[in-house]
Amino acid sequence: MDHKLDKGDHITPILLKIIEESQISLIIFSKDYASSKWCMDELVHIMKYKDKYGRLVVPIFYNIDPSDIRKQNGRFGDGFAKLIQRFKHDQKRVQEWENALTKSASISGWDSKNYRPESKLVKKIVKDVLSKLNHKSSIHMEGLVGIDHQIRRVEELISEARVVGIWGMRGIGKTTLATAVFDKLKAQFEAFCFVEDVRQQLAKNGSKCLKECLKELLKDDDINTYNLRSAFVRRRLQRKKILLVLDDVDNFTTAEGLIEACDWFGEGSKIIITSRDMQVLKNASASASLATYHVLELNPHDALHLFCLNAFKQNLPSENYLELSKWVVDYCEGNPLALKVLGRHLHGRGKEEWESALANRRIKLKGK
């Protein structure tokens, strides 16, 4: 509570630290908000951490129109004009205030005039915050091997490009990587959706999966009543910062259309596409900025680790199974899916059963 903090010309380090450590900030804009130097400095710091670290920000427009904030009109503008006059000698600070107001007022938030009584608005906000914090929970990395550096690399690409393509052979871990990145980043977005098996879903149900995706992004079960290309739907999407993952896309025409759809989304939105075919991504990205990440096979150390987690439920094999395990790892050539399938198949079996199973797969064993 900032009324318990010492007042001064600058925000105290304690309050700055509180803002920096908060997962979510609620900005309550009132008609006199911009007349307070403290409020404006807090706002600049909140928006700085939103831009730098993806912190969640939810504006609440209390008896004020968002356009009055963006344009500094009306009573809100009068209060801000007086503040600017007081600090006319510090143009850099004034410019930071103006930029923060414009950016924050453009974020989708809550308008008090749409809710009566006010208790209804409070309940809606509490539910929204709880939902966002629930999605903010940390990603579970249990059972994922050799993926940390891949997640970091994809995150770097996402920070640079609007669309990121993840490609590689079947079973190499594209979906696992996309899921890990999605779970880690989704709390930074106002809406998000992971569309699984796009290739199969389009083959079976046509555009139904895309309608379901729009329902999820817009939180609207009646989306079927709209034209998917209507201006109304586009305007709603343009107000949201969206994270969309499209898993297993095998048709460049489909991918091209999906990438173009990203233009419907609000500022800061991102699309991740996984595909077995790099050419699909190349052809589809002719008119869009797209970065790609090639998922390679696991190195021998990580491959053995993953195999052992599935075959022995531990990090390393027992001494009696070490050589057999190495042969399996060599056979799988670093493919995570193959390592998991064989590991689970061999779990709990004796050495003779191992040798028989491996022989059936024509894995050449030393001395056999």
Structural descriptors:
Rossmann fold, 5-stranded parallel sheet, alpha/beta, 368 residues
Q: Can you describe what's shown?
A:
The chain has 368 residues and is of the alpha/beta class. It has helices at residues 13-21, 37-53, 66-71, 74-86, 91-105, 118-135, 148-160, 174-185, 198-205, 208-218, 231-238, 252-261, 278-284, 300-311, 322-332, 336-346, 351-360, and strands at 24-29, 56-61, 110-111, 163-167, 191-195, 242-246, 270-275, 290-294. It folds into 3 domains: 2-135, Toll/interleukin-1 receptor homology (TIR) domain (Rossmann fold, 3-Layer(aba) Sandwich), CATH 3.40.50.10140; 148-294, Rossmann fold (3-Layer(aba) Sandwich); 300-360. The chain contains 17 helices and 8 strands. The chain has a 5-stranded parallel beta sheet with strand order 5-6-7-4-8, sandwiched between helices. Strands 1-2-3 form a 3-stranded parallel beta sheet. The longest helix has 18 residues, at 118-135. The model has no long low-confidence stretch (mean pLDDT 83).
Structural class of the helix and strand makeup?
Answer: alpha/beta
The biggest sheet, with number of strands, parallel, antiparallel or mixed sense and barrel status, is: 5 strands, parallel
For the record, what is the CATH homologous superfamily label of the largest domain?
Answer: P-loop containing nucleotide triphosphate hydrolases
Q: How many β-strand runs?
A: 8
Helical stretch tally: 17
Distance between the termini: 74 Å
Q: Please, what is the average pLDDT? A: 83
